[in-house]
TrEMBL record:
Transmembrane segments: none annotated. Belongs to the ABC transporter superfamily. This is ATP-binding cassette domain-containing protein. It holds the Pfam family ABC_tran. PANTHER family: ABC TRANSPORTER, ATP-BINDING PROTEIN (PTHR43335:SF4). It comes from Glycomyces endophyticus. Keywords: ATP-binding, Nucleotide-binding, Transport. Gene3D superfamilies: P-loop containing nucleotide triphosphate hydrolases. GO terms for molecular function: ATP binding.
Length: 243
């Protein structure tokens, strides 16, 4: 479970995350939605101890990230900007992560297999396609067999096969009873992947409800339209320069 309690992050320009409170439950995929600049990545970075909250807290399995002794065994994350060393091979990257978390060599083979990366295990990171890098990122997230998975914009830049792969993977992991949080700014994709939605805009909570309830409440309009209506007042960047 992930618990976000009054989480706030203020930068000089204002609050990127503003008093957010919600819970991500195990056993279902939760979509974390919001327009560009809504504060999704900042929230996720605070969950993972990569940014310090100005106020409030985020707990993973009841503890702040910093209190986890072997974090990869509790939470796995796929972040937008991967930290791949260009000349390290896929297997070496996983080995490097595994070592600091007390994870054995056998598990590296398993996650390479599970993500379809076994044949590419010896390739250097800089030679991997975007789709392969995403798969390697997922392999890293799965290394510690964690109860909680956080995927930040996992389908960005992926081809249709990759999109379907991520969608099915997220559902399978949730089906195993894990807590799965997937961020996206694409309502249509989340409607296919997530059973529950947490929607934010300008750092504030706009909605926390089942996908079914969201669809029912907006019967007759497309999901994209419903999402635009919900987030309309909090869109930060509009095309054409209009505000
Ligand atoms: N290090 C920082 N310093 C100052 N402002 C920041 C910093 N990081 C993020 N912000 C601001 O915080 C706000 C939220 O950004 P964030 O990246 O969390 O949004 P997001 O919902 O993930 O957006 P996107 O969908 O575009 O990735 C934005 O206005 C952004 O400019």
């Amino acid at each position: 479970m992930i618990e976000v309690e009054n989480l706030t992050k203020r930068y000089r320009g204002g609050a990127a995350v503003d008093d957010l409170t919600f819970t991500v439950e195990p056993g279902r995929v939760t979509g974390f939605l919001g327009p560009n600049g809504a504060g999704k990545s900042t929230t996720i970075r605070m969950m993972l101890g990569l940014a310090r909250p100005s106020a409030g807290r985020a707990l993973i399995g009841g503890r702040p990230y910093a209190a986890l002794a072997r974090p990869l065994t509790v939470v796995g994350a796929l972040l937008e900007a991967g930290d791949l060393h260009p000349t390290r091979t896929a297997r070496e990257h996983l080995r490097w992560l595994a070592r600091s978390n007390g994870i054995g060599e056998r598990r590296i083979g398993e996650v390479l297999e599970e993500t379809g990366m076994a044949a590419a295990a010896g390739k250097r990171a800089r030679t991997l396609s975007l789709g392969m890098r995403q798969r390697l990122g997922v392999a890293a997230a799965l290394l510690g067999d964690p109860e909680v998975l956080i995927l930040d914009e996992p389908v960005n830049g992926l081809d249709p096969e990759g999109v379907i792969w991520i969608r099915n993977l997220a559902k399978r992991l949730a089906g195993e009873g894990r807590t799965v949080l997937v961020s996206s700014h694409l309502m249509s994709e989340m409607a296919l992947t997530a059973a529950h939605l947490v929607v934010i805009g300008r750092g504030r909570l706009l909605a926390d409800l089942s996908t079914e309830a969201f669809v029912a409440a907006h019967d007759g309009s497309s999901l994209e339209e419903a999402f635009m209506r919900l987030t309309g007042a909090s869109v930060e960047f509009r095309s054409g320069g209009a505000r």
